[in-house]
């Protein structure tokens, strides 16, 4: 009886390779989305590190790992535009061309500067029920919130945003605003009480968010 | 003497032109002594048989049970990408080859004579 086996010659590299990254990130930990038809392995390098704070990985010292449609990667630390490269390989060593994508790493939180308020004490009595102040941010912002918070160290998710039902203005906004541009605000006594009932000193804090999603602290 | 029955093992089923992936290893032995052996590559779906296709390896007289080995390289697969049939042919001392498969219907183990004895069909 004849003996035989089948053997396949495959000289075609993986096709349709791609890598995509989010446009911006405030964290060095991101996920890359990858695609290549016929790939068994992939190798990533560029502005990425083996661990947070680690040195950038070059193509020469990058390792082949099993192909996956998504891959958690760690960007190198410094804020900048980061580029990640990838190459794919099939199970018999055929390597694809190189593909790359870029992402902006922005871990810098915006800093808020407040001018005012014009009065330090208000009531709900007309003529004494409004305080005015303005704020600006150290970089362009896309959102802000004015809140009564429990401590000066509170973060943007703490406390209660001051409502505008009583006539307060600009307690929240999603208007893109340039760096150092002043945003005029007023707080009405009734709204302040709604956000934090009872007489006494209130801690009012302005938080702003940049386009990467970093909130001021 | 019956036609040689070959036992073989291969290190893979797929190769490329890339160093390290450009060949497989084949090891085989026969249950009886053979006086000639040849391995040939033909493209899947195309005509095959002794003397047909690319000769990959050949051996002369070898005792039963003795293992021989050779490699199949990408350079042996000369008809482009795709699947190849790698055929192993061995000839016993009485001249019988092991490639009588083409004359045995599928799903049968052999042909029989009128008195129900199996016989070797040679071309």
State the share of residues found in helices of chain B, binned by percent.
under 10%
Give the structural class of chain A. mainly beta
- Which segments of chain A are poorly predicted (pLDDT under 50) over 5 or more consecutive residues? none
Find the count of extended strands of chain B (DSSP E, 2+ residues): 9
Assembly type of the chains comes to heterodimer
Strand content of chain B: 35-45%
Order of helices and strands of chain B: EEEEEEEEE
Rg of chain A computed from alpha carbons, rounded to a whole number of angstroms: 27 Å
How many helices of chain B? The count is: 0
Q: What is the CA–CA distance across the termini of chain A?
A: 80 Å
Number of helices of chain A: 1
- What Rg of chain B do the Cα atoms give? 16 Å
As residue ranges, the low-confidence spans of chain B are 101-105
Question: Helicity level of chain A, as a percent range?
Answer: under 10%
Strand percentage of chain A lies at over 45%
Shape of chain A: rod-shaped
What pattern of helices and strands is seen along the backbone of chain A?
EEEEEEEEEEEEEEEEHE
Profile the largest sheet of chain B.
3 strands, antiparallel
Taking strands numbered 1, 2, ... along the chain, how are they ordered across the largest sheet of chain B?
1-3-6
Would you give an account of this structure?
The complex is a heterodimer of chains A (217) and B (123). By secondary structure, chain A is mainly beta. Chain A is 3% helix and 46% strand. In chain A, strand 5 and strand 6 form a beta hairpin. Chain B is mainly β and 123 residues long. Chain B contains no helices and nine strands. In chain B, the strands form three sheets. Chain B has a three-stranded antiparallel β-sheet with strand order 1-3-6, with no helix packed on it. In chain B, strands 5-4-7 form a three-stranded antiparallel β-sheet, with no helix packed on it. In chain B, strands 8-9 form a two-stranded antiparallel ribbon. Chains A and B meet through strand 1 of A and strand 1, strand 2 and strand 7 of B.
């Amino acid at each position: 009886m004849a003996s035989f086996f089948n053997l396949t010659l495959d000289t075609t590299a993986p096709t349709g390779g791609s890598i995509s990254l989010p446009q911006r990130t405030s964290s060095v930990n991101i996920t890359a989305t990858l695609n290549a038809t016929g790939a068994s392995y992939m190798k990533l390098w560029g502005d990425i590190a083996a661990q947070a704070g680690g040195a950038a990985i070059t193509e020469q010292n990058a390792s082949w790992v099993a192909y996956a449609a998504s891959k958690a990667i760690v960007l190198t630390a410094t804020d900048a535009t980061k580029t990640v490269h990838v190459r794919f390989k099939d199970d018999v060593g055929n390597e694809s061309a190189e593909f790359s994508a870029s992402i902006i790493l922005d871990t810098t939180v915006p800093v808020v500067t407040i001018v005012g308020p014009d009065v330090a004490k208000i009531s709900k009595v007309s003529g004494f029920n409004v305080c005015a102040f303005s704020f600006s941010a150290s970089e362009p912002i896309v959102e802000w919130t004015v809140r009564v918070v429990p401590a000066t160290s509170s973060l943007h998710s703490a406390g209660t945003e001051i409502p505008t039902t009583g006539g307060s203005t600009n307690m929240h906004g999603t208007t893109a605003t340039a760096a150092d541009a002043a945003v005029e605000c007023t707080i009405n006594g009734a709204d302040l009480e709604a956000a934090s009932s009872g007489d006494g000193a209130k801690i009012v804090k302005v938080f702003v968010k940049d386009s990467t999603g970093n909130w001021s602290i | 003497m019956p036609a040689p029955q070959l036992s073989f093992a291969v290190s893979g089923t797929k190769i490329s032109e890339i160093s390290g992936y450009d060949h497989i290893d084949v090891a085989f032995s026969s249950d009886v002594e053979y006086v000639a052996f040849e391995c040939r590559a033909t493209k899947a779906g195309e005509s095959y048989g002794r003397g047909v296709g690319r000769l990959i390896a050949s051996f002369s007289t070898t005792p039963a049970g003795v293992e021989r080995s050779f490699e199949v390289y990408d350079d042996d697969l000369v008809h482009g990408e795709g699947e190849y049939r790698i055929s192993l042919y061995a000839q016993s001392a009485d001249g019988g080859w092991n490639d009588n498969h083409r004359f045995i219907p599928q799903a049968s183990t052999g042909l029989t004579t009128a008195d129900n004895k199996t016989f070797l069909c040679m071309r």
